[in-house]
Design brief:
Order of helices and strands: EEEEEEEEEEE
Distance between the termini: 39 Å
Number of strands: 11
Helix content: under 10%
Structural class: mainly beta
Strand content: over 45%
């Protein structure tokens, strides 16, 4: 069965941290780049971070640079998004994507005091 399952979201106060996970099954995980995206209410989905298949080259949206780290563990078929110094404007549903068209169901992140 082909699945991507995000986890780790929740309600957090500004300035705190969260680590999101994206567990893949049914894929040959290391064949794909992995990216994290987010969609806030009333806004379009946007790219947050991306990591390559093997070299672990990464890139980040300007809005999260210096606060977010994307990583992957190919042995565990899992990708991560470590988010630090969270801001209210980081509130969104966060999705992981494998390659260009394989999406998870999303996990809600709410940053509020």
């Amino acid at each position: 069965q082909v699945r991507l399952v995000e986890s780790g979201g929740g309600l957090v106060q500004p300035g705190r941290s969260l680590r999101l996970s994206c567990a893949a099954s049914g894929f040959v995980f290391d064949r794909y780049a992995v990216s994290w995206h987010r969609q806030a209410p009333g806004k379009e989905r946007e790219l947050v971070a991306i990591i390559s298949r093997f070299t672990n080259n990464t890139d980040y949206a300007d809005s999260v640079k210096g606060r977010v780290i994307i990583s992957r563990d190919n042995a565990k078929n899992t990708a991560y998004l470590q988010m630090n110094s969270l801001k209210p404007e980081d509130t969104a549903v966060y999705y992981c994507r494998l390659g260009l068209d394989k999406w998870g169901q999303g996990t809600q992140v709410t940053v509020s005091s």
